[in-house]
Amino acid sequence: MAEGSAAPAGAGPGPGPGPAAAAPVAPPISLDDALALLGDAKHLQREKGLKALSAQLQAVPADAEQAAVVKAAVLELLAGDTWERKLGGLMGGKAYVSLADPALSEPFTERLRLAAMALLEDGEVRVRMAVGDVLKALALRGGVPVFQACAPQVLASISKNFDRTDAEAAEAAEGGEGPDGQQQRGLNPMREFLTESPALPGSPTPEPEPQPQQQAPEAAGAAADGAGAAGAGVSAGSLVSALLKSTYRQVRPGQGEMRHGTEGWKCLETSMKALQALVEGCGAAIGPLLDEPLRELLYRALHHPNRFVRETGHFTMCTVCEALRGPALGAMSPRVAELLSDGMGDNWSQVRYAACVSTRSLLEWLGEGPEREALMPVLLPPMCLNRYYVAEGVRRYAQETWRIVMGEGGRAAVARHIGPVVGHYTAQSRANNHAVREAACACIAELLEKVDRDAVSPHVPALLRSLVVCFKDMSWPVRDAACIAAGRAVLAYPEEMRPLAPEVLALWLAHLADNIPTVRANSAAAAAKALRAYGDEVLPALLAALNDMLLRAREQPAESGRYSGLSNETRFGVAERAARDNDPAVHADQEMFSCGSLMARFSTSYLIKSDGCMDHGFSRDKEPWEVSDGAVHLLRELAAVRPTAVTDDHLQGLAEIGGMASFQHAFNLHETVWRSLLPIGQAIGKQRFKRHLRVLLVPLLADCRCGHQLAEAAAQGAVEGLRAWIGPNIFAGYLPEGVDAAALFGAGDKLLVPQRPALVGLLGVFAQRPPALPPPEGRPAPPA
């Protein structure tokens, strides 16, 4: 609104807008202001200037005068003395080349190209990344001549920085060129990370401070005196020092075995991205220029120690496959397939994904025919495995590639190349990456179930042995996957599995008491599959284990004794749980554990590799309640296969377990019991189940308002399910005394449970406690 203009009708005098007032519209940014923002030190301001410049170039074609203003401003920014101005100039130059009239930008592109190439090895990584964007825009407009003009310098930069010696790494650490080329003398950023280690790098120890110069003569004199004297203390100290120096060695991170795959590699990654941008910008027309030396350099990049360089190399290979489609691609495809197979097995998910992208490009451009079929022994196994890889992006892309490339012939292709597939699966089941071992177990199970038996049968013993090895893995996701796969294998190949059945059955029963809930549940399901396959041969062992494990929770120590000063000592209720959860002794000074493994994170036990000759044993001590939890899972699975194996003692044991409440994890155990109750009842039949229903309802109704959300949900679901299965009227007759069926269920047979109040402040849930269900017989009332 212009200054002094009249306000619209209804506008209030206050600064705040009225209810119907529209938000003020920001005035458009002028061209001069947009160009000025490109050189701002703040990222958001530079993005704002780029957006404004792009909008103006798209809205109205620039005339000669405006084009001259933009080009002059871009070149001025590129000649700036700060990296922010250089970055802004590259951003503006890319926008101008992409959006402006080609006739107006023709003389400008060469100057922009030269300025961009001058910044190819700039000290700021963001500037170097922007150089690649500018080169791609120039290649899209200028084509192959741009590649011919830029490729020599880009390839020279890649070749020069491809290898990094330990001496160069030490020089960079001690003080070399900074981000803008200044010398950083006297700096030692890696000083505090020097380690002393007899075998592997250990805990960080500070580097000793050097002696001052003025103390050098005194130190020299003392050394001379010590050498002349034969004192016992000096001799002992020298001996200890010599022994320590011979035993321990200093290792600097970034050198030798301490070099990491993500450490900086000067400007190699950004120069590789510049090459990728040039190849992508030129497209298929670049094919004749991709000669043997350039391809060899690209092949080397796919095996580079730096994972960012490998990732960029694979993406570049994708464009190379497109550019060389035809006889040239067919000639080089065997070697490329080997490199892509290695990339699809990389430990870094980003590299694995890039290799999957290149693999799809290679197979699509080759098309169906003998050339593609010749690559299947190399590419097919990792393509299969990545369909089960833990990283979602890799997994979904591999599955989509499988549908595109294989169509309906995937199983037949695996059967044709069963030897390489089995060899790859068994090798990956021993890989260092636990996610790869987990995927290998899933692939082995799929192979045993879905692929032609005549092709798979000769390889079944090797596949089963690999599953047994993974069953003893240090990582629980691998054990879980191996447990599921072994259960599927029993049903698919029962006779071939028979020699390993005693060993596998013992592992299943041992894993019923595993620390991980899913492992316990899946072990029970796998044991039930063994019962389906072998019948009475394994039933006695399963029943013996069930009878021994079901009531093991009786041995669980009561944790509420530590908090006896609180009210309601006889029941581990809300107050006791809150005290336990806030007890520093429970959470302080505990070991750290690695992801996916109950093995101490900073422990040398990772050097021990599970090999099938040793127990899995990579877990904490088992709790008695976990043993009972696994038995409940086993009881549910046995009831589905052999209902007659479920006895009255088992159902009475469920009622006893459901009434336990003296330890912290009692309600986790209750959750399993209540989720298993309806399946067990449906398996054994109403007549037998109703004999125990009244006893089971006592703890079941109590847990409908126990304060543990998962146990509450399981209990409420069990009550509603049992009532619908048995019948409302019959169910009402089994309710404990003091519980009114009419008040318990409302419209639509929905269980009426008092809801928690709305949270008022941080302690609102503790300040307002809702009324609970009437306490059933045998269970004390919850605290007021």
UniProtKB/TrEMBL annotation:
Compositional bias annotation for Pro residues: 201-211
Transmembrane regions: none
Annotated spans, Disordered: 1-25, 166-228
InterPro entries in UniProt: ARM-like, ARM-type_fold
Lineage of source species: Eukaryota, Viridiplantae, Chlorophyta, core chlorophytes, Chlorophyceae
Compositional bias ranges of the Low complexity kind: 1-10, 212-228
Protein name: Uncharacterized protein
SUPFAM superfamilies per the UniProt record, alphabetical: ARM repeat
